[in-house]
Amino acid sequence: MANPALTEDAVNAGAVAWVLTSTAFVFLMTAGLGFFYGGLVRDTNIINTMMMSVVSMGIVTLTWVVFGFSWAFGENCPFIGNFDYSLWMDLDMKMWGDSGLPALVFAAFQLTFAIIASAIISGSLVERMRFSAYCIMLALWSLLIYAPLCHWVWGPGGWIGEMGALDFAGGTVVHISSGVSGLVAGGILGPRRHVEKEVGPANVPFVILGGCLLWFGWLGFNGGSALSVTDGVAARAVATTLVASASSMLTWLAFERVLKGKSTSVGASVGAVAGLVCITPAAGFVTPGWSIAIGALGAPWCFATVELMNRINLVDDTLDAFGLHGSGGIAGAILTGIFAVDDGLIYSGSFELLGKQIAGAAAGVAFSAVGTAIIVGVMKMLVKLRIPEEHEIGGVDQHTHGETYHSPVKQYPKGGKSSDVSESTGLPSESV
User: Fold this and answer.
1) Which of 12, 135, 286, 324 is the most exposed place for a label (fewest CB within 10 A)?
2) What CATH number should be reported for the domain holding residue 17?
3) Res 196: pLDDT
4) pLDDT the model gives residue 298
5) Ramachandran sector of residue 285 (left: φ over 0; alpha: ψ -120 to 50; beta: rest)
């Protein structure tokens, strides 16, 4: 991909405005993921769980700037890029191909994808992994798994892209990679010790808020991936995203009602996210009508995966990162091969694209699984991965961060007044 010099005539102002806005949308998704995950765990682990999403904003930003973007989008190799864009060198002086975007705009937009992909993994690891070990794993994973896989699918000369497999906004790059990696890392880490004591989500409003923020941000996630506002692809991507997530949410609620007797607010949020994951690889390639089918088919696929994972209990996939993202990414890749305009099975009568979709998804699964197993396996030999048992059972927040979700209740001395108590410690003033 030739990147010409940045000139005023080459810049597409509308595209720049849309992609920069979408960058902000996608960046907000990581905060939404933090609320979504945080609401699902015990109240003694909410802060640690949310921090696992927040810290990815810092770690992955630096890894992406230093090497990640260059390894993902450098030229001249089907498997990995090069060092030409390390430290985002001179990107502010170049256009990104013929997209009408300054290269720095494209790099920043892609950064937000790397951040959210890395954060999704935490859903399989929360409530038992050391925060320091998790930070190390994030840095290594973003460079050694995410960046090469991104190059395979989206980078110039990447072999999956050259094969003809379609991935509009990251079904394989983001969701298969993170979901499968989380499952493998969770398996190596081992199950939670307190799992038998689980009584349900600690904060359902957090789950609802997080789900809504994810839905909002996903409009930029999929819509911004068009990189343009002039050919109708962005409009199609936004429309199909809205429709598929709505279809999936309602299908999920119906399954809950029939199989469990009640339709829950958590189910509504989880169902919407399942639809968002499933439509991601297809968003710009299918019609809004077929996106209803993608949502309606993706929801039971993910619902069944989550139920099966919980029943067989081989791996403690704490917050169903694989059940939603890994499984949903696979479903989305396959459904893209069926419903994509022109080349999909429904339109062409040919299985060619479907075969390429399956091959691309399988490659993403295999690479993510093997690569993550190597990273986490080596880390297990060198550093402690798990928090101490007493911290895990009692809750991670206080021991790891020195903070708690609930404000401490002040204890006043017998016969004393509030002025006799320290505001910071809750102890009588004379004892502070």
Assistant:
1) 135
2) 1.10.3430.10
3) 53
4) 97
5) alpha
